[in-house]
Write a structure and sequence with these properties.
The protein has 222 residues and is mainly beta. It has one domain. 0% of the residues lie in helices and 46% in strands. A five-stranded antiparallel sheet has the order 1-5-2-4-3, with no helix packed on it.
């Protein structure tokens, strides 16, 4: 068994109704803000994976492990659009998302999901996927149709006038370290992209008693 993508939804507002999910699923939400260096804010209860520095466009990515089938996004203040994607591990497994790379270009006709820069290729994991979140200050480049080798488009949103955002993922086990992949567009635009790794690992019993350990204590994310 391996990681599965369960649902993906978008909303051009600062809240989103999360798609189908169940206890122990991992929910990843990316929030994009156009024409502002102030990234959307992360609501309480979400763990931050990335928040952009002081340049536009800006974005934030957060995640949580579902404890029910009725999780709420909360309000991601200042977001123009939100993308919520749900991933499910195999039975008795956990998914741990980790930050791999951020790429920024102020005006580029070659848009990239950058190479893995955080640590090394993970070992002793049961499955490993790549997740990409990209936003650009142009709505005419049809990012959902572009090919970044090793990735498939999951969701897309746009205001139809000034910006477009996509989520892509590997939709399959990654067996080597992620290397930069680029696609050309006809209209240069300011763009920001983030690459995450999704690691599936076994649940482990807490020493000296029952229960499961905190996934944030896993040695792969130290």
């Amino acid at each position: 068994m391996a990681i599965s993508r369960i649902s993906s939804v978008t909303a051009n507002t600062n809240t989103v109704t999360i798609g189908t999910h169940a206890e122990n699923d991992v929910i990843i939400i990316g929030g994009y803000r156009d024409a502002s260096a102030t990234a959307p804010t992360l609501p309480a209860g979400w763990y931050g994976l990335y928040a952009s520095p002081t340049s536009a466009p800006s974005m934030v990515i957060g995640w949580k492990r579902a404890t029910s089938s009725t999780e709420q996004s909360g309000t991601w203040t200042n977001a123009n659009t939100l993308h919520a994607t749900v991933y499910r591990p195999a039975a008795n497994k956990l998914i741990i998302p980790i930050f791999l790379n951020m790429t920024f270009g102020s005006s580029s006709a070659s848009l990239s999901f950058g190479s893995q820069t955080a640590g090394t290729f993970p070992t002793n994991v049961d499955d490993y996927w790549i997740f990409g979140f990209m936003g650009q200050r142009n709505s005419n480049n049809a990012l959902e149709t572009k090919t970044w080798t090793g990735l498939t488009n999951v969701s897309s949103s746009t205001d139809g006038a000034g910006w477009q955002v996509i989520v892509n993922d590997s939709n399959a086990t990654q067996t080597t370290a992620w290397t930069s992949q680029s696609a050309s567009v006809t209209t240069p635009a300011a763009v920001r992209s983030v690459v995450l790794g999704l690691l599936e690992v076994p649940q482990q019993s807490a020493s000296g008693g029952g229960g499961t350990f905190n996934p944030l204590q896993h040695p792969l994310i130290r």
